[in-house]
Structure prediction request, 153 residues.
Amino acid sequence: MDEARFGPSWESGEGSYRYGGRWSSPGIRAVYCSLDPACAILEVAAHKGFKALDTVAHVLTALTADPARVYLVQPAAVPNPNWLRPGIPSAGQQQFGDVLLGAHAFVVIPSAVSTNSWNFIFVATVAARAYVQRSQEPFALDARLHPPRLAVP
Prediction:
């Protein structure tokens, strides 16, 4: 899920290139996705809040990837279990991800936001021709997730 203004360049990895991410160091053009829309919504809300999802136009992009090129990281394979919990990523965590992203077209790894959900991460140049964009549609947040404040009597 991206802000609508970044929709056309969703696969650029520009944000992670500039700032790094949970599983990538700055300078790596990692594209962070989720296996399901609900996890994508929670991931964005964890970073920006439901207000941003309610007031700033976003798009939800779907893709199909070559399953033979997907590497699944089981929770037990992550060297530090704290990396699967919310918090600021460590240098070791980012380096672990950098190695995975350099070795595999696509990496599926547990989400820190929703422990029973999965993130799907790739570098477009590494995964070239192994995925295709299926759709991109405007996203509308259920307004109950950003309710108005109650008036104080």
